[in-house]
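User: For my dataset I need records formatted as: sequence, then structure tokens, nothing else. Please produce one.
Assistant:
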Amino acid sequence: MKINTIASLAALIIAASASMQALAHHSTTMFDREKVLTITGTIKEVQWTNPHVAIFVMGTINDGDSPTLWLMEMTSPGNLVRAGGWSRNVVKAGDKVVVNFSPLRNGTKGGALKKITVVDTGKFYTADIRAQESANLEEREQK
């Protein structure tokens, strides 16, 4: 009886530990949601893959800075498609873009993409699923 109890307890601890790791992976606490920075640059690569779409942008935050590579992270491809407006090809390598994002707290060159605007077309896309559905998103962004 004791062995079954110990085995059950061990299994429970392992399952709880695994679920905590999964939750930690999907946490967004690594991003400073209180700050919004803007980078201007050129898309170097788009990784349209699960679990998170990633866009690599070679660009600068301040005029006169040397361009550096920034990693912008978003939600999954499925979530972006359901949000409307997004597809695998709406932004691509070589596009000149302006990106608003919440930076990583640790100062690394990256963040959570909030909005990306393609300079040549003026079209913009947001990674905020709720905002994407809002009819007056463009008006709010211009203020």
